[in-house]
């Protein structure tokens, strides 16, 4: 592992593919929709918000998830809890994700490296402080599954939400709003904002108003692309996100980290081959 690269950045590249399985593998949505949910976005909100239980209102989920446009969460929360329960949603999400991983990994799903990686990843995932990290804290209260592949996915999800909570702190520190965060990301990879899936569906006037606000602050230029100041803001957000994501890995020594990287590489590569991005 490079000493120049933050541990959290190196681990992000390996763990993120596992953490994205709920959003990329059909099995997760299928398991949740089988509970009576109406569509893919019902499945998203039920699965991800389930650790909070049924009594947390849409406004709180909107605040914690951060990057949805006004009103989007309320189309699903609390309606999904009229159709199923948080406990059933958690179980279905885990079941679907494990099925998706098993399909993608094939024989690798039962390899010794999966159990080794699950043990080390879980050790890191449950070691970080929860203060200021609402979604991570809620997920920490969910029972840890015993089956190795399920444990690996659960640990990756914990670490993904821990990092996500810190990412929101970094965005807030830069004054970047939720919809603005999507625009910032899209433009940073040279994609017009209206082509980016998470905001491309918004009414044109709404998206234009967001971009105009970023232009007024010097983040976007008259050409519609990021200015030097905009790119610098993006780099500061990513650097702070990495710094705030380091804590879990303090629980692992250098040997643990090297072993974890070795075990995760083929798992991550297999998932990325199945879902190229």
TrEMBL record:
Q: Which InterPro entries match?
A: HTH_67, WH-like_DNA-bd_sf, WH_DNA-bd_sf
Q: Which domain of life is it from?
A: Bacteria
Q: Which SUPFAM superfamilies match?
A: Winged helix' DNA-binding domain (SSF46785)
Descriptive protein name: MarR family transcriptional regulator
**Protein species of origin:** Amycolatopsis speibonae
